[in-house]
Amino acid sequence: MTLISFVVPAFKVQGYLRECLDSILDQPFEDVEVIGIDDASPDDSGEILDEYAARDPRVHPVRLTENVGLGPARNIGLDRAVGDYVWFVDGDDWLVPGCLPHVADRLHATRPDVLLVDHVRAHWNNVGTRSAMRDVFPESPGEATFRLPERPETLRLLHTAWNRLVRREFLVEQGLRFAPGWYEDVSFSYPVLMAAERIGVLDRVCLNYRQRRTGAITRTRGDRHFEVFAQWHRVFRLLDQWGPAVVNGLRPAVFERMIWHYLTVLGNGERIAAELRPPFFAQIHADYARFLPPEGYPVPSGLEGVKHRLVAAGRWRTFSALRAAHQAEERARRSARRVKRRVLPVARLNARRARDAVLHEYYRAELHRPLDPTLAVYASYWYRGYSCNPAAIYAAARRLAPQVRGVWIVRRDRMAGLPPGVEYVVAGTPDYYRVLARARWLVNNVNFPDFVRKRPGSVHVQTHHGTPVKVMGLDQQRYPVGAAGMNFANLLRRVDRWDYSVSSNSFSTQMWERAYPADYTTLEVGYPRNDRLALATAEECRQARAGLGIGPDEYVVLYAPTHREHLPGWRPPFDPDRLRAALGPSGRLLIRSHYFHDRERRPQGPSADGVLDVSAYDPVEDLYLAADVLVTDYSSAMFDYGVLDRPIVVYAPDWDAYRVARGVYFDLLAEPPGAVAVDFPGLLDVFHSGAVRGAAAEQARQRFRARFCALDDGHAAERVVRRVFLGESAGKTGY
């Protein structure tokens, strides 16, 4: 018999669902099942559930053809559950590692109808705030179970479905199910507590309640928040139906919770728009009069008590004025704190800062001039030159949208590397500030500087520069060693400028939504920079080899390791001469450092021993076309090279340390693009033994390509141009 059935509804949670499922399935306790409900989600949530089910028999996906909402989706999962207990976990939350054995021990020991567990609110800025568990129970209740009338303070715990495990037969016997609509937890969680004979409390944090920056109902304005009233009406209908035998004096405490909840919703400016607040308040007043217990209820003290009395009297104007005064007081406090912390560096400005100040004033002046309706500005790798996805989009735009004038931003030391005929400005010059201020389109594979403002009518396109293995964006907050010096608040301000995010595959889309939560539109079209690889001919490959001085019969291996932010200057254990020797007499080894090391590059040129340093060689696509095999570690190069359908070897000598210090999005060693080596002797053996081209490596590569390279058909740049510059719909371009 399964002990716990997890019911996980999924709707627009593709960026978080993997973390949720992993947190359940990776627990040191296996007597569970996961019923994942794809609530007709328009993203890849359903595909993720199917993927997990294919590799873990404990996962049972349910694909709904129509969206039914969170409550009915949970009911569908409940109907399919077989466990002794049901735990409703939302698809964007996740369990604390190692919590399940403790939960299981308590369930076996006390057999409660309901077991309440603690949680933390995990905010998008990596701040965690504790729940009210310690306030409600200053002293832990221990293992003893109780009925709600014995501990009515239990009602003050958050009324959600995911902070409690409920005995399945108890739910069936009581006929307790979720109602449709928003705030569905209210009419489920409170009745569950009122009907339970045995309530247990596990004073241990077991769940991370994700506070999403975008997409959450609690951060969505609209009149659907009025549905909270219907949910509370259901609670009071049950109170009337069950009568004193069950309710036993609970009505005053339940009433107080109702008014508290109403005021919480009303006080949240991200939920109730200003024009809806008066009618919302009027409904609170009506419910106050309708459900007020004859014996009264415990009115809170202080400011909260004042609010309750104003609700009782129906005095909206006074209530509104009190709220406005309180907000003004809070703003004044925050402003005073900012002034106190502010440091004015004017007296210490050197000549360079003075020049920058003048140029920034020039930029601000240019912001008042009209946008240039034909100007598109391109940049790549912090102005390192003409490359990557922006270069491919630029070339496609010149062909498909010749009315758009493309201008590149480059560093002064990269001017010579621009192709003939490419218009450019040098970073830091007046022309640079002018085009940034007036461009209609801004295209970059990283972010533009913080001073750049998002003008109405301008379009910012973030192309990214690789499918992520390592964690990115906000996810780096959990890995501070690899995120030293990052300002995540500034990062989010930059992300808020994006109108479009170009994604190479559905996996990247999921991770970008999680790492960079904002209201941009995703263009899941493949990577423009890979168009050349997808369409490459044998003659192009021959020319690429000839340009490197490589003959047609030589066996070429490209070694391209990634940068390690947490270990600057570190190099993997690697002996070029020994690897070259393992390739045989016709072997040639190309070595390319990460672009972060571009100032550390050694002189380029052929060597007598068949080892060639190509760190300074651009474009990198030539190297891919020239190579017969790619050896890499955690670099996004593997996803690009995979388009060519040639052997890839993962050389990961520090995998365990890397995944702990830097963080990764998937287990590269479990889902590799080919053969794997975890030490240098193993890498040599991959080539000595022929495993580099063995059947296992071939099968791994095909699985990898199907997952990550399916969209790279040679027309990704065209799809971006047609959508962004020509305004064509997805129907025309086919994505």
Automatic annotation (TrEMBL):
Keywords, A to Z, come to: Cell membrane, Membrane, Teichoic acid biosynthesis, Transferase
Q: Where in the cell is it found?
A: Cell membrane
Protein topology in the membrane: Peripheral membrane protein
Q: Give a yes or no for keyword Membrane in this entry.
A: yes
User: What Pfam families does the entry give?
Assistant: Glycos_transf_2, Glyphos_transf
Q: Does the keyword Metal-binding apply?
A: no
The chain positions of domain Glycosyltransferase 2-like read 5-146
Instruction: Tell me which domain of life the UniProt entry assigns to the organism this sequence originates from.
Output: Bacteria
Which family is annotated? Belongs to the CDP-glycerol glycerophosphotransferase family.
Stated name of the protein: Bifunctional glycosyltransferase family 2 protein/CDP-glycerol:glycerophosphate glycerophosphotransferase
